[in-house]
């Protein structure tokens, strides 16, 4: 018997995304439920309150990457982990109500990816954080469309930012990171991505029912 609830990964334009994969909560198929050309990419799940295990959090991110790569590249407005709805009707109501916000978000992120940069120093190192922040900004801000600061959750973190970068500028951005790393061997550079652009989407989609 198929689980009645729908677990949502993200919102796309249209209704064509469908593939088999290792999805959240043991599901094996991802597909689209659509309303007026907006599609929620979902898998079946037996709860509306899924537990965020490390394994399922990774599956959520992996599915989003597969959606981004689908059919030569698909723009997806990513949802945070845990959005599950008890019926197709409830989900379509959300698509209807948030349609303008989803459309705006889709336009903002179309053709773009999120990349992350963390700069880490040695413990007790004497680092000019302001000079490093300025150097990074001068190098990367002209390439990125937007950037946001993330938490400095460790004393050793000198910088922690996410960047929204056009896919066509990815190589330029990669090269700029490589140049910075060559010039700052006193810092550990942690360059991550691409990710679905979580940090640049702020769409609230209401109750999970």
From TrEMBL:
Domain of life assignment: Archaea
Main location: other
Keyword tags: Gas vesicle
Localization terms from the record: Gas vesicle
Any one GO BP annotation for this protein: gas vesicle organization
Record family assignment: Belongs to the gas vesicle GvpF/GvpL family.
Alphabetical list of PANTHER family matching this protein: PROTEIN GVPL 2
Listed name of the protein: GvpL/GvpF family gas vesicle protein
Originating organism: Natrinema longum
């Amino acid at each position: 018997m198929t689980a009645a609830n729908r677990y949502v990964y993200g919102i796309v334009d249209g209704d064509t995304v469908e593939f088999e994969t290792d999805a959240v909560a043991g599901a094996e198929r991802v597909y689209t439920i659509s309303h007026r050309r907006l599609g929620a990419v979902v898998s079946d799940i037996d709860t509306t309150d899924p537990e965020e295990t490390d394994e399922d959090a990774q599956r959520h991110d992996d599915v989003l990457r597969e959606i981004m790569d689908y059919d030569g590249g698909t723009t997806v407005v990513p949802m945070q982990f845990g959005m599950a709805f008890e019926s197709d009707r409830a989900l379509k109501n959300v698509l209807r109500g948030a349609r303008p916000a989803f459309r705006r978000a889709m336009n903002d992120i179309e053709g773009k990816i999120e990349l992350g940069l963390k700069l880490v120093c040695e413990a007790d190192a004497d680092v000019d954080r302001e000079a490093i922040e300025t150097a990074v900004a001068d190098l990367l801000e002209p390439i990125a469309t937007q950037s946001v600061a993330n938490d400095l959750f460790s004393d050793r973190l000198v910088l922690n930012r996410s960047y929204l970068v056009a896919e066509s500028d990815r190589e330029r951005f990669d090269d700029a990171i490589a140049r910075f790393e060559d010039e700052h061997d006193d810092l550990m550079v942690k360059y991550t991505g691409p990710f679905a652009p979580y940090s640049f989407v702020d769409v609230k989609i209401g109750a999970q029912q």
